[in-house]
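User: Sequence recovery, please. Input:
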């Protein structure tokens, strides 16, 4: 249903942390002009953890309205409360999101049975297409392939974003689930290889600053053209690394400000990129030919 380069969109903010909807609108146009295949709003990279419910829904509404059906919009609606996740998912459907991305519940460490019941409850409560999201490095909760397989039998659970960077894990999900569920990379550094294995695309941080190259790399990998995909990916490798030199989205927001696309705002407890890393991120932007 969704494929290619799907940007995990930042949420622009002024220096005082107030949301900047003008810059958000410009970012949407920037991505559509440069071939981004879908926009994921209000995920980890969008600082969803620091926005209240009203702000969260306002950003989703603005992105959906600005996109106006030109590409799919996927809304981040995960929470560590099943009730809250249902509320956010329902709100995203109401503003017109094409699908929702639901991170595993963080901090409270559910069992695999708890994960299954959590996602099943959301899917049954809200009929919008839903994508599971596994990122144990952030959540302290690892959704195992057998749980993904169980959930793949639910009709409106249509995909899983696997952000472990573990290709063997991705291969196992593909073997277990077949065509019942789409696999997406959530790790830019290994995305090309995972797509060549059979994943349908990449939910990408790098695409924020290099949307055209990420679109072209994903498209080449989707058609099985390893040579072309590797040639494009080679100039993105430094970005894949250095956009995580501090916690995401610290480096990517600094990079977008350096490119003149957004103000410097980021909300506590995150802080602006440390000065010692400016040159490394700036050089990665140059290697990707976007600065």
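Assistant: Recovered sequence (291 residues):
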């Amino acid at each position: 249903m969704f494929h290619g380069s799907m940007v995990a969109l930042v949420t622009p903010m002024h220096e005082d942390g107030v949301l900047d909807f003008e810059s958000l609108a410009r970012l949407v146009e920037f991505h559509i002009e440069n071939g981004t295949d879908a926009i994921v709003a209000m995920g980890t990279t969008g600082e969803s953890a620091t926005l209240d419910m009203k702000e969260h829904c306002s950003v989703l509404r603005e992105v959906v309205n600005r996109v106006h059906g030109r590409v799919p919009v996927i809304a981040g609606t995960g929470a560590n409360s099943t009730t809250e996740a249902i509320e956010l998912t329902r709100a995203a459907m109401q503003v017109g999101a094409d699908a929702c991305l639901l991170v595993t519940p963080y901090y409270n460490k559910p069992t695999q049975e708890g994960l299954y019941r959590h996602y099943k409850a959301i899917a049954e409560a809200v009929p919008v297409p839903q994508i599971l999201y596994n990122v144990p490095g952030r959540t302290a909760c690892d959704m195992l392939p057998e749980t993904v397989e169980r959930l793949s039998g639910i009709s409106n659970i249509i995909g899983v974003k696997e952000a472990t960077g573990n290709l063997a894990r991705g291969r196992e999900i593909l073997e277990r689930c077949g065509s019942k569920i789409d696999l997406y990379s959530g790790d830019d550094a290994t995305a090309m290889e995972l797509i060549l294995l059979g994943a349908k695309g990449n939910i990408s941080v790098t695409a924020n600053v290099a949307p055209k190259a990420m679109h072209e790399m994903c498209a080449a990998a989707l058609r099985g053209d390893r040579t072309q995909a590797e040639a494009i990916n080679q100039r993105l490798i430094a970005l894949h690394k250095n956009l995580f030199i501090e916690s995401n989205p610290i480096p990517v927001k600094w990079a977008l400000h350096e490119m003149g696309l957004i103000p410097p705002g980021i909300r506590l407890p995150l802080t602006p990129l440390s000065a010692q890393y400016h040159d490394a991120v700036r050089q990665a932007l140059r290697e990707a030919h976007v600065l």
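The chain has one domain: 4-223.
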